[in-house]
Amino acid sequence: MKTGGAAAGLAALMATEGNAQTQTVATVTTVFTNGTILTVNGDFSEAEAIAIRGNLILAVGTDSEVRALAGDEARIVDLGGKVVLPGFIDAHTHVITGSVVDATMEYVGMARYTSVDAVLEQIAMRVAETPAGEWLVFRNFDPAVQDGADALTFDDLDPISTEHPIFVLNASGHLAYANSKAFEVSSIANDVEDPPGGEFVRDADGNLNGVIKNNVAFLRIAENYPAMKEADPVGGLLGLLEKWSEFGLTTVSELSLGALAQSPADAQVMVAAAQSGRMKARIRAYPFYTIGAETWDEANVKPGDGNALARISGYKLVADGSNQGFTGLQREPYLDSDNLGIAYMEPEALTAAALERAQKGWHLAIHGNGDAAIDNILDTCQALFDAGIDMSRVRPRIEHCSILHDEQIARMRDLGVSASFLIGHVHYWGIAMRDEVFGEEKAQLLDRCRSVQQAGVGFTLHSDFMVTDPVPLHMIEMAVTRRTWKEPDYVLAPQETISVEAAIRAVTSEAAWQLFSDHEIGSLEPGKLADMVILDKDPREVAPDQIKNVRVVETWMDGRQVYAT
Fold first, then answer.
1. What is 411-435 written as a DSSP string?
2. 170-191 CB burial, b ≥16 within 10 A, e <16
3. Which of 185, 284, 343, 394 has the most CB atoms at less than 10 Å from its CB?
4. End-to-end CA distance of the chain
5. What are the pLDDT digits (tens) for 173-196?
6. What is the pTM of this model?
7. What is the pLDDT of residue 276?
């Protein structure tokens, strides 16, 4: 890819305090009044007005108080009854990797294709109009919610073409499928050895069947796709952030930094975007463990490197795969099977890696979907605590934290571990979790927002883009209603619904805390950065199933209007 040099000067670039973007923000004072200001501070207090000066919040309070502090020269904006919230934050996306995948792979997910046959028909149509030898690459396929076969194998894809390499990425990001031509041009033969934590799946006779588990395996095919090599990741990133400003997002994240280029060069993509002066959202990034801790250390990438626009926040580890992909690690087998899933990192390796990173000052975000994987993560966190590591500095968080038992919630509370829920699992995959993955009883343990809240465990809501789209208002609605996509009247685990205010916190102040940015964003308070979203309605005052239809009128980031209807 066009990423430039990988490591040289990276830390120096990331440590630069100034940047082209913030230097251009004028020190004009603007007062927003005649609306409702939801501060999302500790008390979730409301205010009549807010003033910003340059890229900072100057004052929040009554109309008279704010006008007095703003001065007679301030510009006055009449909100006309609209509602102002802190800019939305998605604590778990893959914005750098996703921007390239979004630009180079065709979407064949559930929003457009409800069945596997429809996906195969679309692939066949592309084959018919594409010269032989050219790649055909698709994303977001998910047999857990698209009716039909459970996977795409050589038997499905080779009849469509053996002259075009075909590669299909599962929506989870943990599985992929390819035809025999893609294996051939990638020089992957039948005697290929499985990499640690990954698998080239085989049939009953021991032959490859085209299904691939985990990116450490399927990237050996995807990396040969020419469009990936020629992609412009900086341009793609800037374009994606511009598109996301329509959703009110002002801070996003990259939870697998390095996965795109398979090197620290991904960090330079973030740096270049920050230095362009055209970023419409902040980025908080997590170097990915598969690149190797020593590789990141050699590149001199450290926690906290960067500035308010782009910063290294923590380190990402992965304990297992995807529940709907049947690779999440479980205490008990999946429904009607003897499959327990996959440990992407064995417990000893997970603990060793976490200890090594935590001792060097890294915050840890650890992916865990299955309940056995979460056991392993909590055992690792206990090992950190027993080693005398300050857990408040590590701020360990479990990514997705999908299947959670009461005693695990208690352990999280005691160890200072927070949760980040992929709430789309409930909405989009809830029926599959109930009927195909776990059964109804265990499905009740999915994304236990209210239970962790009642236990005093912090939590966020995220999209895991490209798994789901990063639309915070829809994520809020999912957590408030827990209604499912396939059966709109079915509420999965109604005892886990939460209030609108709690859901708003999960995509603002709590997300800022998890990203080590609560000192600068996440609430509307004097001295914090002027990141705001203006809505046409108060999400607390509409019907719960209409929250997603509340309209983002304006988005402000770093004191600048970056989106307006």
1. HHHHHT-EEEEETHHHHHHHHHIII
2. bbbbbbbbbbbbbbeebebeee
3. 284
4. 35
5. 889 999 999 999 999 999 999 998
6. 0.90
7. 94
